[in-house]
Amino acid sequence: MHAIELDPSDATLYANRSLCYLQMTEADKALRDANTCIKLRPEWLKGYYRKGSALMSLKEYKEACDAFEAGLKLDPGNTELEKVFQ
């Protein structure tokens, strides 16, 4: 958390914290950080993966599919995203 205070423009920090929140079953916070990650670095797949994972945890399946699909549009051959999308 302190790293984000030092550099709030680093999308990697938000993606990492999003994963931590997911592992702590705090999906709302994970989703918030995933959205921030996407805002800061919209071309990076990791944000879409984190967003989709958080939405799955929240049982928002349609929105999760949309997030995974958005990531696949950036990298159609990404096997990890294809796997979770299906």
UniProtKB/TrEMBL annotation:
Keyword terms, alphabetized: Repeat, TPR repeat
UniProt-listed InterPro entries: TPR-like_helical_dom_sf, TPR_2, TPR_rpt
TPR repeat ranges, renumbered to this chain: 45-78
Gene3D superfamilies linked to this entry: Tetratricopeptide repeat domain
Organism domain of life: Eukaryota
Repeat recorded as keyword: yes
PANTHER family: STRESS-INDUCED-PHOSPHOPROTEIN 1 (PTHR22904:SF523), TPR REPEAT CONTAINING PROTEIN (PTHR22904)
Protein name stated in the entry: Uncharacterized protein
Organism: Triticum aestivum
Lineage, uppermost ranks: Eukaryota, Viridiplantae, Streptophyta, Embryophyta, Tracheophyta
